[in-house]
Inverse folding.
């Protein structure tokens, strides 16, 4: 256990208890929900589908913008995230998998990144990303962006208390709801894909790992719950392979593509559908 990393992580959980002191307002809950949605999209579309799997292209400024939003999620920088995730796919549920539930539920959910080994970035996995100095900077100073977001939320809350008292919010209230509650829920939702999506759900494809498709987790994580689909074919920007498999990240990426912000969204090839246990239908 790396206590220097684990104590702030535990502290973020304890800070959520602050809701009993700071109270609640519609505005604070709306900010928490909006920051959950924006940052979940940054994690799934960019940290995962873009940085880890290169399933579409974008401009360098937009690459940085979404890396920055992702970095505010307290899931470290994009290089660390992608390196760990690429190792996960390479060794999925084998002994070298950084977070397989075969090695224990809690280890796969939170234990893996609180260890000294989990803190290290495996640079051999990410030569394509490491050549961007701005991404290396985000990784190097991974606490800076979250702290900046927390301070900004506090200042916004304090300003609104003074100039828009009708909203019923305050600096401490916006800090607790907008930062601590939103970030902790976002974190646990994200890591359910490591823990629960390798345990509970159905298997459409015979992969070597234990990955599952789980509609509830897909709803919570904007499409990442179609994890058995994803392990069978990680090279697609889309993870809900059938029309009824809700994949909010995919819809978001389609919208960004229509606006010309991203391009080259990699589709699901026909041969993939032919390997499905439940028929070749889409
Ligand atoms: Zn997995
Ligand atoms: Zn993946």
């Amino acid at each position: 256990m790396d206590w220097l990393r684990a104590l702030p992580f535990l502290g973020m959980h304890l800070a959520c208890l602050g809701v009993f002191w700071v109270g609640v307002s519609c505005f604070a809950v709306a900010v928490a929900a909006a920051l959950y949605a924006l940052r979940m999209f940054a994690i799934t579309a960019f940290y995962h589908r873009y940085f880890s799997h290169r399933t579409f292209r974008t401009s360098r400024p937009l690459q940085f913008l979404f890396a920055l939003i992702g970095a505010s999620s307290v899931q470290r920088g994009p290089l660390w995230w992608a390196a760990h995730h690429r190792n996960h796919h390479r060794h999925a549920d084998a002994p070298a998998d950084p977070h397989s539930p075969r090695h224990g539920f809690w280890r796969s959910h939170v234990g893996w990144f609180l260890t000294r080994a989990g803190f290290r970035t495996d640079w051999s996995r990410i030569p394509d990303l490491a050549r961007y100095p701005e991404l290396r900077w985000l990784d190097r100073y991974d606490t800076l962006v979250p702290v900046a977001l927390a301070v900004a939320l506090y200042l916004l809350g304090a300003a609104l208390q003074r100039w828009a008292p009708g909203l019923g919010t305050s600096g401490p209230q916006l800090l607790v709801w907008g930062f601590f509650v939103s970030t902790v829920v976002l974190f646990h939702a994200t890591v359910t894909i490591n823990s629960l999506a390798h345990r509970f759900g159905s298997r459409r494809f015979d992969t070597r790992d234990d990955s599952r498709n789980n509609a509830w987790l897909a709803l919570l994580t904007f499409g990442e719950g179609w994890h058995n689909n994803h392990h069978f074919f990680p090279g697609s920007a889309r993870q809900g392979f059938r029309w009824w498999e809700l994949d909010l990240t995919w819809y978001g990426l389609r919208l960004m593509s229509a606006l010309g912000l991203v391009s080259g969204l990699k589709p699901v090839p026909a041969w993939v559908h032919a390997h499905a246990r439940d028929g070749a239908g889409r």
